[in-house]
Automatic annotation (TrEMBL):
Gene3D superfamilies reported in the protein's UniProt record: IlvD/EDD C-terminal domain-like
Cofactors (names): [4Fe-4S] cluster
HAMAP family: Edd (MF_02094)
Residue ranges occupied by any Dihydroxy-acid/6-phosphogluconate dehydratase C-terminal domain in the UniProt entry: 407-597
Gene Ontology process terms (BP): D-gluconate metabolic process; Entner-Doudoroff pathway through 6-phosphogluconate
PANTHER family: D-XYLONATE DEHYDRATASE, PHOSPHOGLUCONATE DEHYDRATASE
Protein name: Phosphogluconate dehydratase
Gene designation per UniProt: edd
Catalytic activity, EC: 4.2.1.12
Pathway assignment: Carbohydrate metabolism; Entner-Doudoroff pathway
Dihydroxy-acid/6-phosphogluconate dehydratase N-terminal domain sequence ranges: 67-379
Record's keyword terms, sorted: 4Fe-4S, Carbohydrate metabolism, Gluconate utilization, Iron, Iron-sulfur, Lyase, Metal-binding
Family membership noted in the UniProt record: Belongs to the IlvD/Edd family.
């Protein structure tokens, strides 16, 4: 099937829009690559410092003839998804030595667990942590002794931050190594029901704690299709993982074999070999378009609409929201994974997973087939799946039939004809909604506004029984400049209870939601934000608000709305506590949500 006309047109528009930035970026990468192997430019003293602790590898490193692999790791015990990385460096070093190379941990990057900080003050550092991760990875790679790198990261801001760094150091090859999802526990929808019962007082904290720990119960990525697992999808559609690496559970022989294979492949594709694959060649316009198609086809996280523009700019590419809109309009929703459905990513993987989807979308002409990936040339490689043979990974053709059509469907018979994310525009600015997780009859909500300046006030109003009729809950001053644009996912149980009571409810905010948020229609990322004088700051209690994801509109219907003066809020309280003091420079310099709310890119 020839390439879809819209996919082709959007790609050409991105290439034209990015021509100047991309040309300058690629020239920088070419010059850096021309300088040759990194270590050759360091003094003996520099090198001796770099190799001093590398007992057993010092001679090989000093000889400079074999490739040296930099490991950038986001290991910590806070994220269940990153805890498995504790054992990776030793595995990678042994794999490197076994093929005549070397590997060193270049440095670590911070990783915030949005589940630990959800609803807490710490969440106000979350989005900015993406850029901190890019900076920290830059510090690691600036030692300049590496011929390629492996990036150990999975979760929400970590993969985007690492991709920003990998693109900045795009003259060296890079492979992303995942940890894989934890085995399935208490189903996500059952956990959500217990939360709603806790919100109404039907169950106590002990029952809630039991449900939460039955859902999040061991090392590995949480099993809902949120931002972390959307990142994994992205790494396959964009060719930065090995094929089928995303959803193999941690602590299994295949998982370890994939880590070894990733290290070996990273050492094969350096400039010292004959298959040089620098990140700058992998992360081109076609790769980003393929990533956006994957986001829409899987009903992925709204957070990637923030992260992808920032990641792309680091690679010299300008993405615009219209690109997301138009690719969504031609991309069928093929997967139903929580919060879009009842299945989790383990079930999705068993039903055929990403390999099945990539094969289907390639055959339908909805993906660029001719991309350069870390595994080789052509995205068709990612329609394969990894198998374990004699302790090594071999790739075999993936399933070309869905194994469960309640989870995964063919392009010809999708769950929805278009993608999972809808953009909205109007006198309230620009926003978006994850329509794949919201019942179609709730894609258009018109109701009077109740205006709040923080999520706890919404919960207090709920507890006081103040919500007794259809309501659009406006939570403003939650944008990047106000308080770092936290996720307001903690409101989901409260608003879901109101919805289940039969009320028409919607959330409108300049903040974010989690990729795990669903069910309640939420118009998020409203830009420009209230703290920058954006139109949300003009909304008053009682104003009629229309949220229309079907026609892409977000409006306040108050007749005098345009003539109003935006209100301001005292945001000084956001400047201290739980490290917020350190992030004033981020709040002052953050870009707008529509371009990724970046600080470093
Ligand atoms: O996918 C994302 O964007 C997320 O941020 C997921 C968060 O980690 C949630 O907070 C975890 O889900 P809950 O246990 O419902 O809080
Ligand atoms: S998926 Fe979210 S909650 Fe789970 S480990 Fe990652 S950041 Fe934490």
């Amino acid at each position: 099937m020839s390439l879809n006309a819209t996919v082709s047109r959007v790609t050409q528009r991105i290439e034209q829009r990015s021509a100047e930035l991309r040309t300058a970026y690629m020239e920088k990468m070419r010059r850096a690559a021309e300088e040759g192997p990194r270590r050759a430019h360091l003094t003996c003293g520099n090198q001796a410092h770099a190799f001093a602790a590398a007992l057993g590898d010092q001679d090989a490193l000093a000889a400079g003839r074999s490739p040296n692999l930099g490991i950038v790791t986001s290991y910590n015990d806070m994220l269940s998804a990153h805890q498995p990385f504790e054992s990776y460096p030793a595995l990678i070093k042994d794999a490197a030595r076994a093929i005549g190379g070397t590997a060193q941990v270049a440095g670590g990057v911070p990783a915030m667990c949005d589940g630990v900080t959800q609803g807490q003050v710490g969440m106000e550092l979350s989005l900015f942590s993406r850029d901190v991760i890019a900076l920290a990875a830059g510090v690691a790679l600036s030692h300049n002794v590496f011929d390629s790198a492996v990036y150990l990261g999975v979760c929400d801001k970590i993969v985007p931050g690492l991709v920003i760094a990998a693109a900045t150091f795009g003259y060296i090859p890079g492979i992303f190594l995942p940890a894989g999802p934890m085995p399935s526990g208490l189903p996500n929808d059952e956990k959500a029901k217990v939360r709603q019962k806790f919100a109404t007082g039907e169950v106590g904290r002990d029952a809630l704690m039991k449900a939460e720990m039955a859902s999040y119960h061991s090392p590995g990525t949480c099993t809902f299709y949120g931002t972390a697992n959307s990142n994994q999808m992205l790494m396959e559609f964009m060719g930065l993982h090995l094929p089928g690496a995303s959803f193999v559970n941690p602590g299994t022989p295949l998982r370890d074999a994939l880590t070894v294979a990733g290290a070996e492949r990273a050492l094969e594709i350096t400039a010292l070999g004959n298959d040089y694959r620098p990140v700058c060649d992998v992360l081109d316009e076609k790769a980003f378009v393929n990533g956006i198609v994957g986001l829409m086809a899987t009903g992925g996280s709204t957070n990637l609409v923030l992260h992808l523009p920032a990641m792309a700019r680091a690679a010299g590419i300008h993405l615009a929201l219209e690109d997301f809109d138009e690719l969504s309009s031609v991309t069928p929703l093929m997967a139903k994974v929580y919060p879009n459905g009842l299945a989790d990513v383990n079930h999705f993987h068993a039903a055929g997973g990403l390999g099945y989807m990539i094969g289907e979308l390639l055959d339908a002409g909805l993906l660029h087939p001719d991309t350069k990936t870390v595994a080789g040339d052509g995205l068709a490689l990612y329609a394969q799946e990894p198998k374990l043979k004699d302790g090594r990974v071999v790739w075999e053709p993936g399933s070309r039939e869905t194994q469960n059509d309640r989870i995964l469907r063919p392009v010809t018979d999708p769950f929805q004809p278009s993608g999972g994310l809808a953009q909205m525009y109007g006198n309230l600015g620009h926003g978006m909604m994850k329509v794949s997780a919201v019942a179609p009859e709730r894609h258009v909500i018109e109701a009077p506004a109740r205006v709040f300046h923080d999520q706890d006030s919404v919960k207090a109003a709920f507890k006081a029984g103040e919500f007794s009729s259809d309501t659009v809950v406006v939570v403003r001053f939650q944008g990047p400049q106000a308080n770092g644009m936290p996720e307001l996912h903690g409101l989901t149980p409260t608003l879901a209870v109101l919805q289940d009571r039969g009320l028409k409810v919607a959330l409108v905010t300049d903040g974010r939601m989690s990729g795990a948020s669903g069910k309640v229609p939420s118009a998020i990322h409203i830009s420009p934000e209230a703290a920058a004088g954006g139109p949300l700051a003009k909304v008053r209690d009682g104003d009629l608000i229309r949220v229309d994801a079907t026609n892409g509109k977000i409006e306040c219907l108050a007749p005098d709305f345009d003539d109003r003066t935006p209100v301001t809020a005292d945001l000084t309280g956001n400047g201290h506590g739980v490290g917020r003091e350190l992030f004033e420079v981020f709040r002052k310099n953050a870009g707008i949500a529509a371009t990724g709310a970046g600080v470093v890119v």
